[in-house]
Design goal:
Layout: E1 3-6, E2 12-14, E3 20-22, E4 26-34, E5 37-45, E6 56-63, E7 71-78, E8 82-84, E9 90-92, E10 94-103, E11 113-117, E12 125-126, E13 130-131, E14 137-138, E15 141-146, E16 149-165, E17 168-183
Parallel strand pairs: 11-12
Antiparallel strand pairs: 1-4, 2-3, 4-5, 6-7, 7-10, 8-9, 10-12, 10-15, 11-16, 13-14, 15-16, 16-17
Length: about 180
């Protein structure tokens, strides 16, 4: 009988057969114990990194929908292989990113600035991603649409920088997240 343990279950888990599953970036010590014998193995998990080129975007203005005294927008960016209609329905295959933005402005436009994640709705911030039991996504997330199913990675940390140059917006972001669910 071998007993397997992980020093940090938030970084990596290990099952009864010794199969290790990476869950987040960091270092973890996996230990196997059988009677008086044991062995340890340190595992370093690097965060995955990806670069995207979103060729189109749409912004929805929701006013003070969260009742924080801020103006709320949803900014969605799409790869060129994703299509969307006026009702927000998606088709095709590729990646989409959704930011739920909070601004302190009387104008119905997205402001230049650096947005940081906030659960309490400060100005120039975005909400982290979360889900309801009805399988709807909320807040900020990265999604992959494939075979009419949207796989979700909720955004849990990071920042977003928006700069408007003449008629174009330059948007850069660095975010981390956690896996969510599949929605048909």
């Amino acid at each position: 009988n071998v007993k397997w343990t992980s020093s940090d279950g938030a970084i990596a888990s290990v099952d009864k057969n010794g199969l290790v599953a990476a869950l987040s970036a960091g270092k973890v010590l996996i230990t196997a114990v059988a009677g008086d014998a044991y062995t340890e193995c340190e595992i370093i998990i690097d965060a995955g990194k990806a670069n995207f080129n979103f060729s189109s975007a749409i912004a929805y203005y929701y006013g003070d929908v969260y009742d924080f005294g801020t103006k709320n927008f949803v900014l969605q960016m799409f790869e060129s292989t994703i299509n969307f209609d006026e009702k927000g329905n998606l088709s095709g295959e590729g990646f989409i990113i959704n930011f739920s933005l909070n601004l302190d402005t009387d104008e119905q436009k997205i402001s230049n600035g650096t947005y940081k994640l906030s659960e309490t709705g400060e100005s120039l911030s975005f909400f982290p991603g979360s889900f309801s039991t009805s399988s709807n996504e909320y807040g900020s997330y990265l999604g992959q649409l494939k075979d009419n199913t949207l796989s979700i990675l909720t955004i849990k940390a990071g920042e977003l920088k928006i700069e408007k140059n003449e008629e174009n917006y330059e948007i850069t972001f660095s975010v981390t997240g956690e896996r969510g669910f599949l929605r048909p």
